[in-house]
Each structure stands twice: as structure tokens, then as C-alpha cells.
Amino acid sequence: MSLAVIFVAELGDKSQLMAMTFATRFRAMPVLIGITAATALVHLASVVVGAVLGAALPTRPISILAGLAFLGFALWTLRGDELDDEERDKARKAGGSAILAVGTAFFLAELGDKTMLATITLAADHGGVLGLTGIWLGSTVGMVAADALAIVVGQMLGKRLPERVIRYGAAAGFAIFGVLLLVEGIAG
């Protein structure tokens, strides 16, 4: 589940835009390695925070709050996400090792981002070492897969991507997960 949730969350996110920008400057493999390293660290921290919250709070309210959070993520996604000129310039001018430049940029960009918050929410709702490990691995793979797709599609299609369709699809995915979590929390 975390793979699908984070993959959908990443569609149209500024991290995807950063991945496309970095791919125009560096080879794809160092960009993917940097993204993977940064994502693994941010999502590991997210799972730890979510696990602590999940252990401290009762299950039904967590499911209801998680459902509401995912509905909020749907609205956030509809609002859209763009790189501002400063972020775009940083991605273009990144010097030194491509892996270090990409990894650092992604790590900082993901702090407080919706994919980090979604991972925290999933971890708070699904306890246990196996569940938390699955959320960490799934969220990391989901984000890296979405960003890899952005690199490939961005190189192939350039600016012809239907951004509005991607944004609406991602928002619908969040809304569906939100409703399912609300039903689980209310019925549970």
C-alpha cells in the first residue's frame, strides 16, 4: 500500500520536477542514486516518527486522522506544486558530485513535503516491525519509481506532459485512500 500511496503522492510533485531538471544536467544513474539515498533517509525518519505517534495514540482515532490527512493531501495535490526560480537555479547550478548534489537537494526538498507526511501517516496507522519495514521500503521504492518515471518521461515528452491530468489522478488516489481510512476508523 505504501508504494502505491507514495507513487501517487509524488506525481506532479516538485521533487519530480527537480528530478527532470537534474536529468538535464547529470546522467540518469547518479540522479537516481542521489534520489534513492535521500528518499531512504527521509522516509526512515518518517516511519520512526509515525511509529512513535502510532504507539502513543489509540488505533481508531489514528485511522480517522489519517483519512482526514489523506483528504487534505488530495486538496494539496489539486493545488499543484511547482519549482520556483530559486529552486530551479539551484538544481541547474549544483556542483561537485552529482550524487551528493542530487541527494542533498532531495533530502532538503522532502522535509515536510506531502510524501514525508503521508509516510508518517501510514506508519502511525500500521505498527509492528514488519509493517513499518514494509512502509519504509514501499514508500522509498514508490518515490524513486515516480521520480525515475519523471526522468524518462520528461526526457521523452518534454513539456507535452498533461500536468493537469496527472494532478487530478493523484488527487483522486489520495481521496480514495482517505475515504478508505475514514471508513476503517469509523467502522472499526
TrEMBL record:
<protein>
    <recommendedName>
        <fullName>GDT1 family protein</fullName>
    </recommendedName>
</protein>
<dbReference type="InterPro" id="IPR001727">
    <property type="entry name" value="GDT1-like"/>
</dbReference>
<feature type="transmembrane region" description="Helical">
    <location>
        <begin position="91"/>
        <end position="109"/>
    </location>
</feature>
<keyword id="KW-0812">Transmembrane</keyword>
<feature type="transmembrane region" description="Helical">
    <location>
        <begin position="129"/>
        <end position="153"/>
    </location>
</feature>
<dbReference type="Pfam" id="PF01169">
    <property type="entry name" value="GDT1"/>
</dbReference>
<keyword id="KW-1133">Transmembrane helix</keyword>
<keyword id="KW-0472">Membrane</keyword>
<comment type="similarity">
    <text>Belongs to the GDT1 family.</text>
</comment>
<feature type="transmembrane region" description="Helical">
    <location>
        <begin position="62"/>
        <end position="79"/>
    </location>
</feature>
<feature type="transmembrane region" description="Helical">
    <location>
        <begin position="165"/>
        <end position="187"/>
    </location>
</feature>
<feature type="transmembrane region" description="Helical">
    <location>
        <begin position="28"/>
        <end position="56"/>
    </location>
</feature>
